[in-house]
Amino acid sequence: MIECFCLLGAAMPDLSVFQYNAVDNIFSMTVATMGAAALFLYMSRSHVDAEYRPALLVSGIVVSIACYHYFMIRHSWHDAYSLVGAAGYKGTGAAFNDFYRYADWILTVPLLMVELVSVLRLHSAKATSLLTRLVIAAALMIALGYPGEVIADPSRWSERVIWGGLSSIPFFYILYVLWTELTNSLDSQPPAARKLLEVARLVILLTWAVYPIAYALGGTPDALAAKAGTANAADGVVGANGVVGLQIGYAIADMTAKAGFGVLIYLIAKAKSTKTAAAEAYGAA
After folding, report:
1. Strand, helix or coil at 93?
2. What is the CA angle 32-210-249, rounded to 5?
3. DSSP string, 123-134
4. Under DSSP, is residue 91 helix (H, G, I), strand (E, B) or coil?
5. Mean pLDDT of all residues in the chain?
6. Per-residue pLDDT for 277 more than 70?
7. Dist CA 18 CA 232 (whole Å)
8. Once rounded to an integer, what is the mean pLDDT over residues 257-266?
9. pLDDT over threshold 70, residue 223
10. Where are the domains of the chain?
């Protein structure tokens, strides 16, 4: 554990003004997006039937947790860099604490599973079995990915690949289970919710695919060399782009997988609510 936290304080690569601001702006946008989504989900609970309100509550908690952690991530980003005239931004020596992101994931990814299973309204035994499998797999995915994420030594690149490969096993298991369960549940869902659940399948598949791509970008030998401060002038530029790509990729994926998915959960819950169905029937009459 001591090694992990030391690695978080490894030398940060030099960044141009554009690179630094690109990451800072995406962090700012993520904080605002998560905060706005939290307000929307909390205030929208009265628009759906009582049995679907827990799903919206959990979804609101997910984006609230993410909002806090991204606020802390952005604050840590500011501390890790200082502007050095036309040369751009250089590391201050302060740690950029990426552990905030993993602390966020260890809380929010299992809760994402909870909100999805809650809105499906499956039979109790099936819902419990599904949720247990998904939560355990989510915890394993994050726990196995973290040791590789904090590696900042180019000579240990193969270790990062191994940890990433191990983390991919529960990752793909989750995608498989979610895809098959969502597909199997379509026939039991109201017609108005089926299209939305089909969209939910695609959102899960596409947004979750960003995470291993971002992990790979931040784990190239050049990116690790830039993080460790051992890159030469040419490789340092490439490595810095990898670090920037990692942060932007994770932020975009988190906004879509949490805030965007939360809005989708609300639309599914609303489509399945009897008050919505009654209102639509009244309007058609």
Report:
1. coil
2. 45
3. -HHHHHHHHHHH
4. strand
5. 84
6. no
7. 20
8. 94
9. no
10. 13-81+95-274
Q: What are phi and psi of 15, to 5 degrees?
A: -125, 150
Average pLDDT over residues 188-213: 84
pLDDT digits (tens, 9 = 90+) for 95-120: 888 789 888 988 998 899 899 888 88
DSSP bridge partners of 91:
81
**What does the pLDDT read at residue 228?**
60
Q: CATH classification of 13-81+95-274 is 3.40.50.300, yes or no? A: no
Query: Which residues have CB under 8 Å from 11's CB, separation 6+?
Result: 91, 93, 227, 228, 229
pLDDT tens-digit map of 129-152: 988 998 899 889 988 988 887 777
| Among 201, 221, 215, CA closest to 250 | 215
Q: How far apart are CA 113 and CA 65, in angstroms?
A: 15
Provide the H-helix boundaries in the chain.
Answer: 2-8, 17-43, 53-80, 99-120, 124-149, 157-185, 191-217, 221-228, 233-254, 261-272, 274-284
Range of weakest confidence among 18-22, 61-65, 220-224, 253-257:
220-224
For residue 161, with 0-12 CB atoms within 10 Å meaning exposed, 13-18 middle and 19 or more buried, which class applies?
A: middle
Helix (H, G, I), strand (E, B) or coil at 82: strand
The tokens for 253 are 């994926």
Q: How far is CA 282 from CA 229, 267, 276, 279, 285, in A?
A: 66, 20, 10, 5, 5
Rounded Cα distance between 109 and 104, Å, is: 8
End-to-end CA distance of the chain: 65
Binning pLDDT at 50, 70 and 90, where does residue 8 land?
Answer: very low
Residue 81 three-state SS: strand
Distance CA 227, CA 214 (A): 15
What's the confidence (pLDDT) of residue 6? 37
| Residue 245: Cβ within 10 Å count | 20
DSSP annotation of 51 reads G
